[in-house]
């Protein structure tokens, strides 16, 4: 079966889950799946996907896995104890084929008990789809591409201080290929390889796990906070109360950069270690973040800018050249690392669309990334956060 461990997911799922346990244990969540790649027939694989989900729901954390989580400085003992009792329950998942070949996949239930479904579900859909393609995947070619990417960073001392991490679990070609990629990067890049968002591989291979918060956390706060206009500041303040200065990278694009900068005042500039870019022009974002920190009496050279939106090695090198010495830099590469073996990668996502029965959404700097099933709510959100597009 595809998923062999509940750790086979991104670290930020656990960091958010701990906040849910401590601050929103009664919250109810609803997620929806979408395939943005046209002409893909996923419906014919529905039985295989159901079988994989059934297996996923049998998994529990092992004592070794719990010990690894307890060893992370920000994981609290009661959360690790809770995970020791935790299992995913397939009753919260609804999956059905649609006439056009698409899949309807919905996850609905207590947020605390559904938050870990997203990443393994996406990994399952990916691997089931790719393993059923006609023969033609060329791992020899994939390995050559990976070797060429490593050479881009290692052939010139200009990039000695550049650090990249793997963020590719959700769109990987397969579990085994992701592991091969990680080991190749570890051996080929040395200190230039910063680690992975995948907690299972971090544990197996002594890598550094990376992750803080994802969009769903800030989206959920639209329904959980005292007032919609204050939901972004409410989310950041709740995060700070939980982690007391740790995991201090703020996600900047749930309402677009303009709205983020309006809320990310001097207090947050000084409190958080940095910010993560995940939509819109990364060069414009970087310039504006540097200017914003400077205006708020922070030295940008002490702040971390994390780039994670559709990166490839060429773009990483361009961003590094633009911003090196002006801020601390980190790069998370996903699909271009874990699904670059020939076939076109799937553009699949699973997003929270409701929390406590109320619609939630993100309005990122890349409108194609927006996902909400309530047009009226989207219009209202744009009005509240003064968003033009």
Could you characterize the architecture of this molecule?
- With 389 residues, the protein is an alpha/beta fold.
- It has 2 domains: 11-134 and 347-383, nicotinate phosphoribosyltransferase, CATH 3.20.140; 139-338, nicotinate phosphoribosyltransferase.
- 44% of the residues lie in helices and 14% in strands.
- The strands form 2 sheets. A 6-stranded parallel β-sheet has the order 5-4-9-8-7-6.
- Helix 14 (282-295) links the parallel strand 7 (274-277) and strand 8.
- Helix 2 packs across helix 6 and helix 3 runs antiparallel to helix 4.
- The chain is globular and about 55 Å long.
- The N and C termini lie far apart (43 Å).
- The mean pLDDT is 95.
Q: Topology, please?
A:
Layout: H1 11-23, E1 28-35, H2 46-56, H3 63-70, H4 77-84, E2 93-97, E3 103-110, H5 111-114, H6 118-131, H7 139-154, E4 164-166, H8 175-189, E5 193-196, H9 199-205, H10 215-224, H11 231-243, E6 249-251, H12 257-263, H13 266-271, E7 274-277, H14 282-295, E8 304-307, H15 313-323, E9 328-333, H16 335-338, E10 348-355, E11 358-359, H17 375-384
Parallel strand pairs: 4-5, 4-9, 6-7, 7-8, 8-9
Antiparallel strand pairs: 1-3, 1-10, 2-3, 10-11
């Amino acid at each position: 079966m595809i998923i062999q461990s509940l750790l086979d997911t991104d670290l930020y799922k656990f960091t958010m889950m701990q906040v849910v346990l401590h601050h929103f244990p009664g919250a109810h969540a609803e997620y929806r799946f979408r395939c943005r790649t046209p002409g893909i027939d996923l419906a014919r694989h529905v039985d295989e996907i159901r079988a994989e989900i059934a297996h996923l729901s049998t998994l529990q954390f092992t004592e070794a896995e719990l010990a690894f989580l307890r060893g992370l400085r920000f994981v609290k003992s009661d959360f690790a104890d809770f995970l020791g009792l935790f299992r995913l329950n397939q009753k919260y998942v609804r999956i059905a084929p649609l006439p056009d070949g698409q899949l309807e996949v919905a996850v609905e239930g207590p947020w605390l008990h559904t938050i870990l479904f997203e990443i393994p579900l996406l990994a399952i859909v990916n691997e089931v789809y790719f393993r059923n393609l006609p023969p033609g995947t060329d791992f020899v070619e994939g390995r050559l591409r990976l070797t060429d990417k490593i050479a881009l960073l290692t052939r010139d001392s200009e990039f000695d201080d550049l650090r990249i991490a793997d963020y590719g679990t959700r769109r990987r070609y397969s579990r085994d290929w992701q592991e091969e990629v990680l080991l190749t990067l570890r051996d080929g890049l040395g200190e230039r390889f910063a680690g992975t968002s995948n907690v299972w591989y971090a544990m197996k291979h002594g890598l550094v796990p990376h992750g803080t918060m994802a969009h769903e956390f800030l989206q959920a706060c639209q329904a959980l906070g005292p007032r919609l206009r204050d939901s972004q500041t409410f989310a950041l303040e709740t995060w700070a109360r939980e982690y007391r200065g740790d995991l201090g990278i703020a996600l900047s694009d749930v309402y677009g950069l303009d709205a983020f900068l309006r809320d990310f005042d001097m207090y947050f500039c000084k409190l958080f270690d940095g910010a993560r870019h995940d939509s819109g022009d990364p060069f414009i974002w970087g310039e504006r973040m540097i200017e914003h920190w400077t205006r708020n009496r922070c030295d940008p050279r002490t702040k971390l800018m994390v780039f994670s939106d559709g990166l490839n090695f060429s773009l990483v090198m361009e961003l590094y050249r633009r911003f090196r010495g002006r801020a601390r830099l980190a790069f998370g590469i996903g699909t271009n690392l874990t699904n670059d073996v020939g076939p076109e990668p799937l553009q699949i996502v699973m997003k929270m669309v409701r929390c406590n029965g109320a619609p939630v959404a993100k309005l990122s700097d890349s409108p194609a990334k927006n996902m909400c099933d309530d047009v009226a709510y989207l219009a209202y959100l744009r009005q509240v956060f003064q968003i033009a597009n």
